[in-house]
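## tool: complex_structure
## caller: assistant
## args:
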Amino acid sequence: MKAVVKIPTSLRGLTGGSSIVEVPTGRLSEVITSLTDTYPELGERLLDEAGDLRRFVNVFVDDDDIRFLDHLETTVSPGQVVTILPAVAGG
Amino acid sequence: MTFDTSLTCRECARTFDPGPLYFCEWCFGPLEVTYDYDRIAEVTTREDIEKGPPSLWRYANLLPVSRSATADLGAGLTPLIRADRLAKELGLSDLWIKNDSLNPTNSFKDRPVTVALSKAVEFGFKTVACASTGNLANSVAAHAAHAGLDSYVFVPHDIEPAKIVAAATLGKVVEVEGNYDEINRLCVELHDIYEWGFANINLRPYYAEGSKTIAFETAEQLGWELPDHVIVPVASGALLTKVKKGFDELVRIGLVSENSQVRVSGAQAEGCSPVAVAFEGGSEDIRPQKPDTIAKSLAIGDPADGYYALRAVRKSGGAVTAVTDEEIISAIRLLARTEGIFTEPAGGVTIASLIKLTSQGVVDTSERVVAYVTGHGLKTPEVVDARAVARIPANVVGFQEALGEKEEQL
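## result:
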């Protein structure tokens, strides 16, 4: 069983319209590499030149912000949902 | 007519046509309203502003909405009070309180909301919404009702009861079993599936502009001079960022002296202090926290504008500090006793931070200081344990026995 990544509406043009993308499980960094290998343009949006997540990208594994978990080292298990959202909302 | 030209990404500077957008689809950076400042400078004078409406709409040239705003309850132009008695307690010489609890829904949130919801009408939204710690909910529900819009406001289930009652009388409140940051995330996801105008999501670039007006008013009320130092409460960091922008704009369009520099300092509660922690640690990275403080209106553990607020503070030579719940309550009482202003904990955070920054020497005793009190104490009566001094029968003897007051010779 795989995990899935939820793609926000504004980025679905880069995933052929898919709102949900299946990914292999493992460390979150591997999940993101798998995602961006499949959709290289998505990689340019999510990652900076050094390959780190951009400052204003938030990632959640199920309901938890990865900054409260192990950041890119967070384990993504089968059936879990990875959500990518812009960070600039609220206030 | 308005003078905004586009939305610009604060990170990569790409521009977008005006619309209900809030982040850059290229780098996820926040979008900000851009103006034609040369034109604004040509057509804007102090005299015209002074002849304008007695509300923040007198500064319409510096807002992305025209004066004929559709969601206008009269926000802005709140009193700027000279606070000599409080100044004396703190050893300051020139202290002012901007009492923004005297807005239509009794918090500064009416400033961003009147702009955001007027913009929502312009964009054709029929329903508006927001994630809120309470005050924003109140303001969105009120302005929506006035503009004839439907509203959904999402708040943590454990905020102060008065805020729920007020918002629920005005619109539809949804209590969420989660903290503000979780609700914010929920609303970002809802925004993807409902065509609603979310004040602090897809309308956020416009919303945030409204907060500049507290800086404009401060300058106008000081006779078109900038203060030396302002103390601003920090939740998302948007208010502080926009206060700095507001002062900078006045200099840029020539309404105040170009030699003016305002130090901007931030105030947080220790139980939710991600920006203060980053400031004190010399870091640019804001590490999110799980809030636990009586200053519920400031309980944002993952502040969207924390990074920019930090930059604004550092650039201006200010500081960000954090105060305990006990210090907050004691500051609420001190402000009430010395200046006759009853504030909610957010105002207590500001005053307690002013006290702390003064004792640390960050605030210089010779500076002209303005402290922003952003919400009314009647919204949170449960936080101060204040009681009547006596309960008496309705006669003179009863009063004298209870209070021991001797008769005065009249």
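## assistant note: The mean pLDDT of chain B is 96. The first strand of chain B starts at residue 4 and ends at 9. Handing back to user.
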